[in-house]
Amino acid sequence: MYLTPTPFYMKRFFLVTLLLFVALSGSFAQYYTPQNKVWAFGYGAGLDFTSGAPVSIGTSINSFEACASVADGSGSLLFYTDGKTVYDRTGAIMPSGASVVSYGVNSATQGALIAPVSGSTTQYYVFSLEEIGGSTGSSHLSYSIVDMTLAGGLGDVVAASMGTSITNKLTEKMVAVAGTHCDLWVIVHRVDSNNF
Fold this sequence. Notes:
There is one protein chain. By secondary structure, the protein is mostly beta strands. The strands form four sheets. Strands 7, 8, 9, 10 and 11 form a five-stranded antiparallel beta sheet that branches. 12% of the residues lie in helices and 32% in strands.
């Protein structure tokens, strides 16, 4: 016996299919740009893809899951983060980067994300997503801004932006997707719901 899908399930299927398409198309495209050629992750690990083949590099990052890094237009590393601590390209903690949020992100599966500030060539958002069961108990999403013109060109976190709260009650999933103009969408998922 064949059952006809209900409109609810068709809508859900369409939404999931659309989100997967957007996420996959964005993720494939992002790795072919110089800004994503150097990765920092894990416990002091990193990979540099600027030569075409991955080359192992050492970093100062110390994270179970959360990690993000960004390079410039030629593929040279600018900075990296675990969502709580922000490191410059030399591996030193930025002057104001020791603790950009008060909650834990180390065990959030997608707890850190770096995105350029629209209209700027020197500023970047660092999004920090709290691990579920963290110290606040409500899975916060916050941002801080890194300005690469500070600290003699090594960059620093803009103190006034540090840990700016956006929302809470989220899962540990976060992705950035380029919009149709100069915008960027950061997509997160509300816990215990179908809301993104």
